[in-house]
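Module 6 notes. Inverse folding takes a fixed backbone as the condition and produces residue identities as the prediction. Think of it as a translation problem where the source language is geometry and the target language is the twenty amino acids. Below is one complete input and output pair. Work through it position by position during the lab.
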């Protein structure tokens, strides 16, 4: 089994090394004969040292000039050679237990893919409550968080990958398409809960509660219009790092 780990990255010089180290550590801890992997970092038109740091850490770096996370993920997938694709954000850290759960799911042969619950250290109460609400929604509906999505490569390509008309929340549509693809073949799409993915709480540190609440309300009130225009999504695209 060959696993392709794909990391979209825009101006991630502060966090990319720690992300890659967490992946290398988890891969080493879960090594077994017949298991191979590759790490692809998609430089999504960064203006900092993201690409150089990723190369120095041993990752393969490909370039995507249009700053859009779904497009970056698709670019990485187009370059991948794995039987399975694991997308993880550059501000997140893969842990040994989570990767072990993912590999067991793959070996079991009953799933088309999976997502994971997320944990963020040091959140204020309102952000912690929001994350708990998302976690419940994610598990109930089988929606993967964008920070980590795993898919069979043939299924990913059959459904057309991430929707490039959307600048955020495209992982929800991908989850729904993967579930449908899997159901037609007797396969499931699940959300793993035993070992949550740790992700950076930086958005809460960089944006006020009012800014984040305003962003959420814009998406809820005008979902399609907001999600198709990155100017309506400053929390994702204004470049604050």
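Target side of the pair, the amino acids:
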């Amino acid at each position: 089994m060959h696993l392709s780990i794909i990391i979209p990255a825009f101006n991630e010089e502060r966090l990319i090394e720690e992300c890659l180290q967490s992946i290398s550590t988890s891969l080493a801890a879960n090594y077994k004969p017949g298991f191979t992997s590759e790490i692809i970092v998609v430089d999504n038109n960064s203006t900092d040292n993201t690409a150089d740091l990723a190369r120095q850490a041993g990752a393969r770096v490909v370039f995507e000039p249009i700053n859009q996370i779904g497009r970056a993920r698709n670019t990485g997938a187009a370059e991948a050679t794995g039987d399975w694709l694991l997308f993880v954000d550059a501000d997140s850290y893969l842990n040994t237990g989570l990767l072990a759960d993912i590999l067991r799911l793959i070996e079991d042969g009953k799933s088309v893919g999976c997502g994971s619950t997320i944990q963020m250290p040091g959140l204020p109460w309102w952000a912690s409550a929001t994350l708990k609400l998302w976690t419940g929604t994610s598990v109930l509906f089988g929606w993967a968080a964008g920070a980590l999505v795993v898919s069979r490569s043939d299924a990913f390509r059959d459904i057309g990958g991430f929707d490039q008309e959307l600048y955020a929340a495209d992982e929800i549509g991908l989850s729904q398409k993967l579930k449908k693809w899997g159901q037609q073949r007797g396969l499931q799409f699940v959300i793993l809960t035993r070992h949550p993915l740790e992700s950076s709480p930086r958005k809460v540190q960089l944006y006020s509660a009012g800014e984040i609440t305003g962003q959420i309300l814009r998406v809820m009130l005008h979902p399609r219009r907001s999600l198709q225009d990155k100017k309506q999504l400053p929390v994702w695209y204004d470049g604050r790092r």
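Reference fact for the lab report: The chain has one domain: 2-200.
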